[in-house]
Amino acid sequence: ETGVTQTPRHLVMGMTNKKSLKCEQHLGHNAMYWYKQSAKKPLELMFVYNFKEQTENNSVPSRFSPECPNSSHLFLHLHTLQPEDSALYLCASSQAGGLSRETQYFGPGTRLLVL
Amino acid sequence: DQQVKQNSPSLSVQEGRISILNCDYTNSMFDYFLWYKKYPAEGPTFLISISSIKDKNEDGRFTVFLNKSAKHLSLHIVPSQPGDSAVYFCAASALSNFGNEKLTFGTGTRLTIIP
Description:
The complex is a heterodimer.
Chain A lengths: L3 E4 L2 E4 L4 E8 L5 E7 L6 E7 L2 E5 L6 E7 L2 E7 L7 E8 L10 E2 L3 E5 L1
Parallel strand pairs in A: 2-11
Antiparallel strand pairs in A: 1-3, 3-8, 4-5, 4-9, 5-6, 7-8, 9-10, 9-11
Chain B lengths: L3 E2 L4 E5 L4 E7 L6 E7 L6 E7 L4 E4 L2 E6 L4 E6 L8 E10 L5 E5 L3 E6 L1
Parallel strand pairs in B: 2-11
Antiparallel strand pairs in B: 1-3, 3-8, 4-5, 4-9, 6-7, 7-8, 9-10, 9-11
């Protein structure tokens, strides 16, 4: 596997379900990100992790719970979601803190539908 | 309030001609700008970037121009090819306290190259 992978690619869940999205990066990066893209809206940053530590939480509701067990893996745990949470969830990684400005590399995304 | 705006949701260009995609921003703290390209069912792919200390950056067929006084940037693709058909996202960045790029995205412009 190369780059950034995400599973599952598609997910349908009810409002009472609990599910998790998984992201894995094979680039040796030290930072990982979760973004949300709703229909007709720009990508919105949700969370940032640096060296497994959460450094940004962009006022995300607590029904979204991220987890970063190591620099290569990132999870987004979902519980009691609402239909308006239906969106494309994108994971990205980068090499932060270097001398040059970083580039974020994105996974293919998980298309989530909440019924 | 959107800090990064792409006012053209779509653009059609004849193959071989120049494609010009525009982006405007409002936050004067942004100092690094990127263009990403997205094909259906894939994540955004980094295309080209420019620092605020420059007004032009070129990479093959792709050139990004930055007009800081107008808070405007543009992406020029010449000559346009059918494989360039995709959604193009403009992103603007300011460094967080932890050294991460905090990207703010536009809503995207769908470019269609007509053979």
